[in-house]
Design brief:
The complex is a heterodimer.
Chain A lengths: L1 H13 L4 E2 L2 H4 L17 E3 L4 H14 L3 E4 L16 E4 L6 E5 L4 E4 L5 H8 L4 E2 L12 H7 L6 H4 L6 E7 L5 E5 L11 H5 L8 E8 L1 E2 L3 E9 L2 H13 L6 E6 H11 L9 E9 L1 H17 L3 E4 L3 H12 L1 H6 L4 E4 L9 H14 L3 E7 L4 E8 L4 H20 L18 H20 L14 H5 L1
Helix pairs in contact in A: 1-3, 8-10, 8-13, 13-14
Chain B lengths: L10 H6 L11 H6 L6 H13 L6 H8 L6 H5 L6 H16 L3 H11 L1 H18 E5 L2 E4 L11 E2 L6 H4 L3 E2 L6 E6 L2 H5 L2 H13 L2 E4 L9 H6 L2 H16 L5 E4 L2 H14 L7 H10 E3 H7 L12 E6 L2 H6 L4 H8 L4 E3 L15 H4 L1 H18 L3 E4 L2 H13 L5 E4 H8 L5
Parallel strand pairs in B: 5-6, 5-7, 7-8, 9-10, 9-11, 11-12
Antiparallel strand pairs in B: 1-2, 2-3, 4-6
Helix pairs in contact in B: 3-6, 4-6, 11-22, 13-14, 13-15, 14-15, 16-18, 20-21
Classes of the chains: A alpha+beta, B alpha/beta.
Bound molecules: flavin-adenine dinucleotide and iron/sulfur cluster (2 copies).
Chain lengths: ~475, ~425
């Protein structure tokens, strides 16, 4: 059997300790964090320890025509790691070393299995930070977050993962090792391959080394919580804060449903008669922070809101608790939690929030919305029960409508969670046939045999058959 | 919902896992093995697979479910509030029901289940232990032969006389502030009777009347966690009957795991047992860890004499996350004059003992312990305080093997010393 031969070859090249075939293990690599998706069982899971071993896996996969699914921590929300067609799951858990911290060039070089938080812990003594902070900083890998181009709470001011990736080592589908980018701030040699692979969701190559940019930790910050009794007031405050040239590090919103659920779960004394809460944090030099915080307070007052400022670290933690509790609180209401991330231009946040309220009513669903209001990236969270087929039908219809509205407002299907399998069929809505055609050409050029994460982002399967 | 009734009872919990993977950040087993099957998310998927018949009850599956410390770390971080340990226990029980338990666990559990055999066995073992163990110290031993145990492992010696053999059944005080019944627990009774003596001393100093019921026995936790919950019902029933017979304000436990048996498991085990359900519930409400009791009493600071030492505190999983006793021990420690309290970086991380886990998976248990030892070393503490005799055994083993000088005491031993107790 070819599969057995392939497994034998993998064992020989990687050592038996890096080749997993027990059914009790394989079942645990059939899912990721995405709700309401079919699973797929891999034939084998490998845990290479270095780039050479990754190259060997790719060569064996080519020889036996087995697909490869790169996997970090498996926390993505678009089905990116699900082994749809069997084959090899390549888990990067054992490539988890920080290779270098370079405080002079403000860079760090890491292997893909390093956890984002571990990198931050390691650079903290140098007074540096790595800003991209998805809700999963404590679990997600650098490789997964680069492949997904993750965002996070600080996206508005500090940007997302792609703004920090400077160089990559990638094992290509033909088994060659590509190095692109480097430690220089400026680099226009050839096409921007670093950006191409960032956000490529494991479909173009396997990332084996990453050089990232670090920045000095901001010396001061001020954290505030503001409440509004009208949604439109909250939306206007968001737009005006930025119009007044204040770019907060964090500018997060929670809608009425979320606030009510959070309060009934965490009992932290949130007023439940608000239509929306904003969590705002400004950071930077102390004088600047002070001036910016004053501007924020003035604008909140002008928009009929109230505002509380954290006087010390404990109070700051309390304010942050409200936002951190959003997902946990919502997730407890019903067994199935569908977390979307439709994103609109900042000026349309209010429209999007109102549309979400409408959609919830129309489909008779419970939707709590929170998210990164400052960058237009909202997380409408639909609460349902996967066992209730009728309800799930309404959920799927609502999700489609959310995408439709986001795109009609000039937004995008996904701000940070990626396309994967979950949003593949909506791609033409945003990119048009031409856009999808370009994606396919890139995929075919780099992975003509469709070995790398097949069935994600674009489908080459039909064409292959014809 | 009673997890001890098997998988069907935890179906709702299984569905609530949203596969977010947050549990990876805290699971000590996952951090060693980096296998998805070792983290709560993977185990929940496996439980579901067994429940739905996608997978057979193989020994390999049992092994995956043995790889859990029931340390509750995943539960405390889980956004969906999934009761992971309920799922683990239900699956272990289901697997034991379909496959039976390995002989070593059967033997251990059957001893624990029969108080008389346990008492006699411990007595004989205390006399004979020097034949199979080499004494390194008056109270530390190492196996002479493999015995199915790791030879490098260092065990505390069984006490020549158990706690229950050393103490009276009742200690009256004039005008008592409170009346309590003391539950000793196996390890305190047979290995660390000094903790029990220190407790009695402290309670009497604080004018608390104590009864120490003679016929108490093992709380049954090892069986509950080992998948043999059915036989624990009998043990639960006898404890409920015994302790409900005393007119006391509280039942005190000296170990978080024993406390959890009384507090969380007896009511669930006996909810349908006629005549026992309510009593078990009442008993559960009255059960209290010694640290919480002393803190609430409150501890009389006038009784405390200065002790010049640096101490740190390791939080036992079942005491902290299980019973919510987190701040009380620390406040008690800090109230002793002269004691410099230096917190661990990560006081709530599991030490890796997890009862029979450390017997069946010693090397893994030891690597988990290594993180704790590093944390302890960095504090510069001379004494590690904790509230669980199993953690204490684990810490003693590691500290001795690594030739670290720290002593390990139960929190009450520190307090008793400060009140003038000398053993
Ligand atoms: C509760 C929760 C909150 C979240 N919050 C956020 C948030 O705030 N912002 C945000 O952006 N995301 C968020 N996410 C999504 C997710 O955490 C991120 O996408 C994360 O960066 C994925 O990292 P991972 O290691 O889990 O990657 P995985 O899920 O393992 O993989 C993600 C993708 O990358 C590919 N991949 C992995 N490693 C490699 C590699 N070495 N080379 C090539 N391809 C690779 C995989 O094939 C897959 O397509 C959240 C998810 C959850 C469950
Ligand atoms: S943290 Fe909870 S919900 Fe998330 S994967 Fe683990 S058990 Fe499931
Ligand atoms: S209880 Fe502890 S060991 Fe078991 S899965 Fe949860 S975190 Fe891991």
């Amino acid at each position: 059997m070819t599969l057995e031969k392939a497994i034998e070859a993998l064992r020989r090249e990687l050592g038996p300790q890096n080749v997993i075939t027990a059914p009790e293990e394989l079942i645990c690599y059939s899912y990721d964090a995405t709700a309401d998706l079919p699973e797929g069982r891999p034939d084998v899971v490998v845990t290479p320890e270095n780039t050479e071993q990754v190259v060997k896996v790719v060569k064996i996969a080519r020889q036996f025509r087995l697909p490869i699914y790169p996997r970090g921590a498996g926390t993505n929300l678009s089905g990116g790691t699900v082994p749809l067609k069997g084959g090899i799951v390549l888990a990067t858990v054992k490539m988890n070393r920080i290779l270098e911290i370079d405080p002079t060039n403000l860079t760090a070089t890491v292997q893909p299995g390093v956890i984002i938080q571990e990198l931050n812990n390691a650079v903290a003594p140098y007074g540096l930070i790595y800003p991209p902070d998805p809700g999963t900083v404590a679990t997600a890998t650098m490789g997964g977050s680069v492949a997904e181009c993750s965002g996070g709470l600080r996206g508005l001011k500090y940007g997302v993962t792609r703004n920090y990736v400077m160089g990559l080592e990638v094992v290509l589908a033909n088994g060659e090792v590509l190095r692109c980018g480097g430690k220089t701030v400026k680099n226009v040699t050839g096409y921007d391959l670093v950006r191409l692979f960032t956000g490529s969701e494991g479909t173009l190559g396997i990332i084996t080394e990453i050089i990232v940019r670090l920045i000095p930790a901001p010396p001061a910050r001020e954290t505030m919580l503001a409440g509004f009794s009208r949604l439109a007031d909250a939306g206007n405050a968001v737009t005006q804060i930025i119009e007044h040239k204040v770019i907060p590090a964090t500018l997060e919103i929670m809608d009425r449903v979320t606030v009510e659920v959070v309060e009934s779960y965490a009992r932290i004394g949130l007023p439940t008669d608000v239509a929306a809460l904003l969590l705002i944090e400004v950071d930077g030099l102390p004088e600047v922070v002070k001036a910016e915080a004053n501007t924020v307070k003035r604008i909140v007052a002008q928009n009929n809101g109230w505002i509380k400022t954290a006087e010390d670290e404990i109070q700051r933690e309390n304010l942050l608790t409200a936002r951190r509790a959003a997902l946990p609180a919502l997730a407890r209401v019903k067994p199935t939690t569908i977390l979307e991330d439709a994103t609109v231009p900042r000026s349309k946040v209010t429209d999007m929030l109102l549309a979400l309220e409408e959609i919830a009513k129309k489909y008779n669903l419970l939707i709590g919305t929170f998210g990164h209001a400052g960058d237009g990236n909202l997380h409408p969270t639909i609460l349902a029960d996967a066992r209730d087929e009728e309800e799930m039908k309404r959920v799927r219809a609502a999700v489609e409508e959310i995408f439709r509205v986001a795109i009609s407002l000039g937004g995008t299907l996904t701000g940070e969670h990626g396309i994967g399998v979950a949003k593949k069929r909506f791609l033409p809505w945003e990119m048009g046939e031409t856009g999808v055609w370009v994606l396919k050409q890139i995929k075919k050029a780099l992975d003509p045999d469709n070995l790398l994460n097949p069935g994600k982002i674009v489908d080459l399967a039909q064409e292959e058959r014809s | 919902m009673n997890p001890l009734n098997g998988l069907g009872a935890v179906e709702e919990e299984i569905i609530r896992c949203m596969k977010c993977g947050n549990c990876q950040a805290v699971c000590p087993i996952y951090q060693e093995l980096k296998l998805e099957s070792s983290v709560a998310r993977g185990k929940i998927r496996l439980a579901e697979a067994l429940f739905k018949g996608e997978i057979l009850a193989t020994p390999a599956l049992s092994e995956r479910f043995d790889l859990c410390l029931t340390c509750l770390a995943c539960e405390s971080i889980c956004p969906s509030g999934v009761k992971v340990s309920d799922i683990i226990l239900a699956t272990r029980r289901e697997l034991a029901r379909r496959k039976g338990l390995p002989w070593i666990k059967r033997a251990l559990f059957s001893t624990l289940q029969h108080p008389r055999i346990l008492r006699r066995g411990a007595k004989i073992a205390a006399r004979l232990q020097d034949l199979v163990f080499r004494r390194l110290d008056s109270d530390k031993m190492q196996p002479r032969f493999p015995l199915g145990l790791e030879r490098r492992r260092i065990f505390p010696a069984l006490a020549p006389q158990s706690l229950l053999e050393q103490v009276e059944e009742k200690y009256s005080v004039p005008k008592p502030l409170a009346r309590v019944a003391l539950f000793a627990g196996c390890l305190t009774n047979y290995v660390f009777p000094g903790v029990g003596l220190a407790t009695l001393y402290l309670l009497r100093q604080h004018r608390v009347e104590v009864v120490v019921p003679r016929s108490q026995h093992c709380c049954g936790s090892p069986l509950i966690y080992g998948g043999a919950a059915d036989v624990v019902k009998e043990m639960a029933r006898s404890h409920v009957a015994l302790f409900s017979g005393f007119k006391v304000d509280a039942i005190l436990t000296l170990c978080g795991t024993c406390g959890e048996a009384f507090h969380h498991f007896y009511p669930r085990l006996l909810q349908d047992a006629p005549g026992y359900g309510e009593k078990a519930e009442e008993l559960a409400q009255k059960t209290m860890d010694i640290a919480r009791f002393l803190y609430q009493l409150p501890l009389d600071r006038n009784l405390l004499k200065p002790l010049e030492l640096t101490a740190t505190y390791h939080q036992p999983c079942h005491l902290g996350r299980g019973l919510g006793v987190v701040q009380e021990p620390i406040e008690l420690i800090k109230s002793v004059p002269g004691v410099r309290y230096v917190p661990l970086q990560n006081p709530a991380r599991c030490c890796g003992n997890a009862g029979s886990f450390s017997l069946t998976h010693y090397p893994l248990s030891y690597s988990i312990l290594t993180h704790k030892l590093k944390d302890i070393a960095a504090t510069g503490a001379e004494v590690v305080l904790t509230g669980c005799p199993a953690c204490r055994m684990q810490l003693l083993d590691g500290l001795s093997q690594e030739r670290m000088p720290q002593k390990v005491w139960h929190t009450v031993e520190l307090l008793a010393r400060a009140c003038g107790f000398s053993k």
